[in-house]
Structures are given as C-alpha cells and as structure tokens.
Amino acid sequence: MSKGTVVLAYSGGLDTSCILVWLKEQGYDVIAFLANIGQEEDFEAAKKKAVDLGAKKVFIEDLRSEFVEDFIWPAVQANAVYEDRYLLGTAVARPCIGRRQVEIARKEGAQFVSHGATGKGNDQIRFELTCYALYPEVKAPWSMDANLMHIRWVRPHILELSHGPADLYLMTKNPEDAPNTPDVLEIEFTNGVPVKVTNIKEGQSKDSPLEIFSYLNEIGGKHGVGRIDIVENRSIGMKSRGIYETPGGTILFKAHLDIETFTMDKEVRRIKQALSIKFSEFIYNGFWYSPECDFVRHCITKSQENVQGRVQLSVFKGQVYILGRESPKSLYNEELVSMDVQGDYDPCDASGFIRINAVRLREHHRLQSLADNKQ
Asked: Which PROSITE patterns does this UniProt record tie to the protein (predicted)?
C-alpha cells in the first residue's frame, strides 16, 4: 500500500534520480516536476528517465516568463544584491519553482514534496519555507544550478579557494576573448522595470520581459560580463565559495541604479537602499513568502513610481559603461547645479547650514579634548 504521493522537484541529474528511486523503495508514489527556468536541459530526455525510474506522472512546466516578471523584475527594482556582490540568481529562482511545485501538489492531492537540495546548503531552507508558507499541511520527506538569470557552480575542486579552472564558465566568454568592438544599448524603464532594450548600432529591439532578459544575457555573455568568484555567508552560518555568471542581471543592475539615482529623491532613496538590503537578505534566506518580505516588496514598488526613462550604455570586455540617461521624471536641474548661474540658490544659505552642522562636531571634539586632558 502506498504511503502517499510525493511531488519531487526533479532535474534529471544524479541526486534527484537517486531520490526518486529511494522514494519508490520507501513506498511512495512519485510525481516528477521539472521546471524550465531557462537552464540548458533536454527536458524530454529527463522526462523519459523519470518515467523509466518509476515516476507516476511527470510535469514539465515552462516558468521562464513568470520567473522574469514575478521574481527577477522585483529584484531589479530593488537593486537586490547579497553581501554587496551576489545578485541572487539561485535564491530568487527557488520561490518561483516552489510555488509551482505547491500548485501541482495541491492539484494532484499530494501530501508530500521533495527536492534534491543538500542539508548543508541554502536551498533546502528556501524550498521548504516556500512550501510550508504556501501549503501549510504539506510534509517534506527528507549540486550545479542553472537558470535564466545565472549559473552557479559548485564542484569539489572549487570548494577550495584556489583559482577556478578556465573552462568552468558556460554563459560568458572570457573577457580577453570577447569582441574588440562594444555593443551599445539603450534600456528603457517604466516604474523601475525594463520595458524595452535597443541595440543602437544594429537597430534591434526587444520589448517583452522574457525577450529583454534573454537578449541581455546574450549580449552580456558575448562580452564576458557578470562573472564573480566570492566567499559568502550561508543561511546556516558557514562560509562557502560560489562562482557565478549573471550577464543580463549585471547589465540591468548597472542601468537601473543609474536611472533610479537620476529620478529618485535623495531621502527616499536612502530609505529604499536600507529596504533593499533587507529584501536581499529575505530572498537569500528563503523568506520570499514571509509577511515582512511582502511588506518590503510593496514599499520598494512604491519607490519606483517615478523611475522612468532611458539609459544608454556600452558593454565591452567584461564591463558595463554608462554613457548617458534621459527621463521625463528627472530631478537634475542643470541651472541649479551650474557654477556659472546662481538660479534660485543663495550661496549665503550654506553658511548657516554649515554652522548648524558644525555644532555637534565642535562639541564632540571639545568634550573629547577635555577627557583626554584629564587623563
């Protein structure tokens, strides 16, 4: 007699194939779920393998568009980056995959979900927190990762801190081997979200979310943009090495940062920057579906109402160079900042401003000097 039905997040690789067989041996009916989030994969071959190993059903779900629109775009609006360097390509994919896994589990009446993430990593936490948040009654009986946004490499030899092998990268060329002429792009934003990308030299444009992101991956990959080799702090407390390729995400991060600074009030942006750090931590630690993350996400969305305009940039040999920007919501006043035109600004006002701000500094150092003299 079956112990129940399990929906397994299946990749076709060794880990999840072993788990599928083990679950069958333990007496579970297994439904294999393969998520297409942009990784290079032979899904039909993986489906056949799952059936051959005993899967009761196999679902192949194309999640690429919703991955971009519902998960990558909010990360772009937030300038989400973990520990100043990691653009969260794996972390932001997990709530997308987990959401569909739960939908299938509910539809099929499955009591259990399973995955191939290791207990030492972050992904077990991300998958299971997502499933418990969206399907509270569910139980969870008991890697390279790639998707549309990036590739993360975890191999035995890169767990050491030595130089990574040259043939490791798949999405990006070595910048030294990249073309000798740049690609010049214009990216248009509305509400902090890219709505169009144009290759100025080629006259080629993309305007659907999936096409925009895929094209930026293509251009960024061609020029070797978005490679990082870092040591990061995992959710469970240990440090780990990660080598990541995020070509399209890196281009968008640079472009969005530029148009946001151009169009957002200074004090609003200071608050938004603090919220972005929290948002990045929530994503990394698996709390996408938490009430606190939902609150922060709504605040960030509100902050993006005036982030509108176009950014021109050059992509060349591993780098993204901002060339210019324009916006109907610009807060830049050329006359106000000019050294040649006084405009509405009275330089005498600065004297009072300086004296007020100096009160605290003068008093601090006066008291510090008194304390030092007593010693």
From this structure: ARGININOSUCCIN_SYN_1, ARGININOSUCCIN_SYN_2
Give the model confidence (pLDDT) of 171-222 as tens digits.
999 999 999 999 999 999 999 999 999 999 999 999 999 999 999 999 999 9
Lowest mean pLDDT segment, chosen from 4-8, 344-348, 366-370: 344-348
Whether residue 37 contacts residue 150, with contact meaning beta carbons closer than 8 Å, is answered with no
What is the tens place of the pLDDT at every residue in 322-337? 999 999 999 988 766 7
Strand arrangement of the beta sheet that strand 151-153 belongs to: 145-146, 151-153, 239-245, 227-233
Q: Which CATH class is domain 5-64+86-154?
A: alpha beta
Residue range(s) of every CATH 3.90.1260.10 domain in the chain: 166-326
Backbone angles phi, psi at 8, to 5 degrees: -100, 125
Dist CA 179 CA 159 (whole Å): 32
Q: Is 64 a catalytic residue?
A: no
Which whole-number Å values give the CA distances from 309 to 190, 197, 221, in the listed order? 7, 12, 25
CATH 3.20.20.140 fits 166-326, yes or no: no
Active site residue 15: yes
DSSP readout, 60-98?
Answer: EEE-HHHHIIIIIHHHHHHT--BTTTB--HHHHHHHHHH
The one catalytic residue among 65, 143, 214, 290: 143
* Catalytic residue list contains 351: no
Q: Are 172 and 226 in contact (CB under 8 A)?
A: yes
Catalytic residue among 94, 100, 126, 227: 94
- Selecting among 11, 100, 123, 235, the annotated active-site residue is 123
Q: Which two tokens stand for residue 335?
A: 């006359």
